[in-house]
């Protein structure tokens, strides 16, 4: 089933975001993404084994730190590219539920770049391709 593009995905937990950012290899991948790149390009540039690169990319994507898009090619050899999906990540500590005196709660917020029309269309194509 194709996801509803008008619906926001479930936000990641604070733990997912902090775990991803605490990982040295994952941070190197994020730093290397000055433009969209493939897993192979990132593996080579960051000097990380390809299998590890794929695991880190999945972790970063699950934490909403990266987005992926698919380049559709006529020869059928489609390519997935990864890009950074945030301008800033803010982790804050606030007061918990009012009934739970003294508890503190962590929150994570993302500042995200505005998606272009081409990026939104590419996302729709990627989702459609995954369903077929």
UniProtKB/TrEMBL annotation:
Name of the featured protein: Transcriptional regulator
InterPro entries assigned: ArsR-like_HTH (IPR011991), WH-like_DNA-bd_sf (IPR036388), WH_DNA-bd_sf (IPR036390)
Annotated source species: Halorubrum ezzemoulense DSM 17463
Top-level taxon of the source organism: Archaea
């Amino acid at each position: 089933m194709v996801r509803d593009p008008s619906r926001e995905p479930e936000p990641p937990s604070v733990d997912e975001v902090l775990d991803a950012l605490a990982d040295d290899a994952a941070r190197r991948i994020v730093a290397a993404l000055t433009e969209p790149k493939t897993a192979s390009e990132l593996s080579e540039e960051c000097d990380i084994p390809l299998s590890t690169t794929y695991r880190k990319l999945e972790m970063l994507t699950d934490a909403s730190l990266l987005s992926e898009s698919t380049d559709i090619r006529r020869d059928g050899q489609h390519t997935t590219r990864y890009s950074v999906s945030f301008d800033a990540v803010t982790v804050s500590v606030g007061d918990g539920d009012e009934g739970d005196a003294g508890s503190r709660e962590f929150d994570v917020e993302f500042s995200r770049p505005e998606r272009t029309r081409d990026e939104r269309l590419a996302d729709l194509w990627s989702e459609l391709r995954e369903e077929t």
